[in-house]
Amino acid sequence: MSALLTSIEPATGAVLWQGTASDVEAEVGRVRAAWPSWAAKPVAYRIETLRRFVNVVRANEDALTDLIARETGKPLWDARTEVTAVMNKVDISVAAYSERTGQRRLEAAMGARQSVRHKPHGVMAVLGPYNFPAHLPNGHIVPALLAGNGVLFKPSEKTPAVGEMLVRFYHEAGVPQDVVRLVHGGPDEGKALTVHADVNGILFTGSAATGIAINRQFAANPGKILALEMGGNNPIIVWDTGDISSAAALVVQSAFLSSGQRCTAASRLIVKEDIAELLVSEVKKIADRLIVDHPHADPAPFMGPVIDNHAADQLTESFLYLMSHGGRPIKHLVRLSEERPFLSPAIIDVTAMAERPDVELFGPLLQVVRVPDFPAAIAEANNSRYGLSASMVGGSPEQYNQFWANVRAGIVNWNRPTNGASSSAPFGGLGISGNHRPSAYYAADYCAYPVSSAEIEQPRASIGIGLRDFDTSAMGD
């Protein structure tokens, strides 16, 4: 008998959802049998079906918003922006599918034509994260369905209720029951999906450790498509600027939005020594004012809890590690509740640390590094195996051009936060942040593969060289 799975509201400790792990073999078989008929539908039919999905989400917008807020702990306003992104994803994906996987036909010799068209891969497994349990998996599922694939969606075991509601909305919109299937479970079910012979591709969002393990599994199987998004240890550089208040606000937004549980969150503030005291003081003033409370609180909080007590314990241990190895606390990480995972935003100056850990601190913990000159700032920004997002605040256009050209990241911003990336642009990184398969607008690239065809209605060919002459003496009268 399958073990009982339970989802707990981070803010209250209440049981939100219970269920059991799925039968992966059975679910893969259902999608394997169903996807060819979906792929055979005209693309206009698939587009119309997914536009009905938008209408279903819109009709249930408040319910989905509330469920996301309860299951993740994020403030209600933050959850609502996620639901908006879910709805906007369809039109963006339709445009991307047309632009990046459209058909082309060229005339060739003797009335032939050269065609380029795209085919779906088949059965795609989507492994979703807990921080954006609807928006991020939806960003894989919608383009995969548009291209004609079948989908197995395994939500994070920490946010199964949102995953269940999302799949129900696809079905209510008319996506066939067996074309998109929900797979509940934990690491065992995730691994069963990634190694299954009948799964043609894995679209993964999560930790670097898990993504690297999946990549190793695929090393001997180049026939499967693999798209990895594995987070970041993201830098935000603040240089010469006359608007310290705005710079500080951008730093706070980058570091503490969604309680720092965004893969694009700024983990490292790299600041010019001349302005460091003034800037860090302003960042602390804003951080001291941030409201941390449950999702439905009034006044509305800026931050909710992190996902669970285990995550809160890990972040607390990380702060203590930094502090005991040379870090100078500017704003302590404080557990605001003995029972629930509410954390205060924290700031620690790690400039004096001999070795700074290159890890993703998935929470409201900002490290400060002071540097003497701009080359040192860029070097520090690149002092990471990750390469997802980087931002520069202040500086001159020439310095931004230097920053853009030399920083290793898939998202590079100027006078904007590190987070809040547009779905109308590619989203992905390099190093151990990803495997050069950016999602968002470029998700169309890994949801279908190009097929080149030389075509003519009647066979027409001759061989004009390399043949012996006819031997007429062997021919009869």
Give a brief rundown of this model:
This protein is an alpha/beta fold and 477 residues long.
Brief descriptors of the model:
alpha/beta, seven-stranded mixed beta sheet, single chain, five-stranded parallel beta sheet, 477 residues, 39% helix, 2 domains, Aldehyde Dehydrogenase, Chain A, domain 1
Give a structural overview.
This protein folds into two domains: 4-231 and 433-455, Aldehyde Dehydrogenase, Chain A, domain 1 (3-Layer(aba) Sandwich), CATH 3.40.605; 234-422, Aldehyde Dehydrogenase, Chain A, domain 2. Helix content is 39%, strand content 20%. Strands 12-13-14-11-10-15-16 form a seven-stranded mixed sheet, sandwiched between helices. A hairpin with a 6-residue loop joins strand 1 and strand 2 (15-20). The chain is α/β, with parallel strands linked by helices and 477 residues long. It has 14 helices and 19 strands. It is globular and about 100 Å long. Keywords: Arginine metabolism, NAD, Oxidoreductase. Residues 6-445 form the Aldehyde dehydrogenase domain. Belongs to the aldehyde dehydrogenase family.
